[in-house]
Amino acid sequence: MDQRYATNPTQIPGMTTSDLRAQYLVPELFVPGEVRVTYTHHDRIVLGGAVPAGSDLELTGYPEIRSDYFLEHRELGIINVGGTGTVTADGEVYTLVTGACLYLGRGIRSVVFADAVASETTSPDTAAGAQFYLFSAPAHTSYPAALVSPGEGTVRELGDQVTSNRRTLNQYIHENGVQSCQIVMGVTSLHPGSMWNTMPAHTHDRRTECYLYFDLPEDARVIHLLGERDETRHLVVADRQAIISPSWSLHSGVGTSAYSFVWAMAGENQAFDDMDAAPVSELK
């Protein structure tokens, strides 16, 4: 388990590009045949990736979280950004197509990731192999497991083609959807011709947010903005790389092409619209 310690805004001015990437970028989440996880001390979030690549993978406990099994004191949101796969939680099998979201609550002892069983009718999506994105936060109680297929959550159409940020937002785990202790999670997809994922940029000083960028062409990149509004920095992000955004940091991004991203938050509350805008005129 990789560990990232908490940072504060006074550190930003003295950080090099390498420093910023070491603190806030998680570049290698999806490794065939592995479960890879990173622990950030910002709201004690764990994010990771599981790529079965033809073999079953178990999510185990880790010494860093002082748990005999991973969900002993935690909850977990899972979104599949690869081909169809399965997650088996204490014997219950859930099939996740591309873009599906699964919530698992505190107390589930066994979590196993696998690719879907191939058959003569296997679709290209299934044959591609599953890639599960994991987002976990501490939990004080247990909520029921819940599976949401793409388009079955709360769908919001946002932005405008004129400002290059027309996008479809799917809310899965949130206060009016799948219930959790802390996690708020969903997927946003930009429409063709749009590149900004949110504008104006914003902060929400009561929650840490992590972004997983995906559906980016191999030669495309997202320029992710971070820092305070009067001391901004940026990171260049490739396909299937994640960003840790502390509660004090603004976040926005623009791509060289359209893309999708998983957004996931944990912290003081679960109100999606609890955010403070950083107007473009204030950015430096």
Automatic annotation (TrEMBL):
<comment type="similarity">
    <text>Belongs to the KduI family.</text>
</comment>
<dbReference type="Pfam" id="PF04962">
    <property type="entry name" value="KduI"/>
</dbReference>
<dbReference type="GO" id="GO:0042840">
    <property type="term" value="P:D-glucuronate catabolic process"/>
</dbReference>
<feature type="binding site">
    <location>
        <position position="202"/>
    </location>
    <ligand>
        <name>Zn(2+)</name>
    </ligand>
</feature>
<dbReference type="InterPro" id="IPR021120">
    <property type="entry name" value="KduI/IolB_isomerase"/>
</dbReference>
<dbReference type="InterPro" id="IPR027449">
    <property type="entry name" value="KduI_N"/>
</dbReference>
<dbReference type="GO" id="GO:0045490">
    <property type="term" value="P:pectin catabolic process"/>
</dbReference>
<feature type="binding site">
    <location>
        <position position="251"/>
    </location>
    <ligand>
        <name>Zn(2+)</name>
    </ligand>
</feature>
<protein>
    <recommendedName>
        <fullName>4-deoxy-L-threo-5-hexosulose-uronate ketol-isomerase</fullName>
        <ecNumber>5.3.1.17</ecNumber>
    </recommendedName>
</protein>
<feature type="binding site">
    <location>
        <position position="204"/>
    </location>
    <ligand>
        <name>Zn(2+)</name>
    </ligand>
</feature>
<keyword id="KW-0862">Zinc</keyword>
<dbReference type="InterPro" id="IPR007045">
    <property type="entry name" value="KduI"/>
</dbReference>
<dbReference type="GO" id="GO:0008270">
    <property type="term" value="F:zinc ion binding"/>
</dbReference>
<keyword id="KW-0479">Metal-binding</keyword>
<feature type="binding site">
    <location>
        <position position="209"/>
    </location>
    <ligand>
        <name>Zn(2+)</name>
    </ligand>
</feature>
<comment type="function">
    <text>Catalyzes the isomerization of 5-dehydro-4-deoxy-D-glucuronate to 3-deoxy-D-glycero-2,5-hexodiulosonate.</text>
</comment>
<keyword id="KW-0413">Isomerase</keyword>
<dbReference type="GO" id="GO:0008697">
    <property type="term" value="F:4-deoxy-L-threo-5-hexosulose-uronate ketol-isomerase activity"/>
</dbReference>
<dbReference type="GO" id="GO:0019698">
    <property type="term" value="P:D-galacturonate catabolic process"/>
</dbReference>
<comment type="pathway">
    <text>Glycan metabolism; pectin degradation; 2-dehydro-3-deoxy-D-gluconate from pectin: step 4/5.</text>
</comment>
<dbReference type="InterPro" id="IPR011051">
    <property type="entry name" value="RmlC_Cupin_sf"/>
</dbReference>
<dbReference type="InterPro" id="IPR014710">
    <property type="entry name" value="RmlC-like_jellyroll"/>
</dbReference>
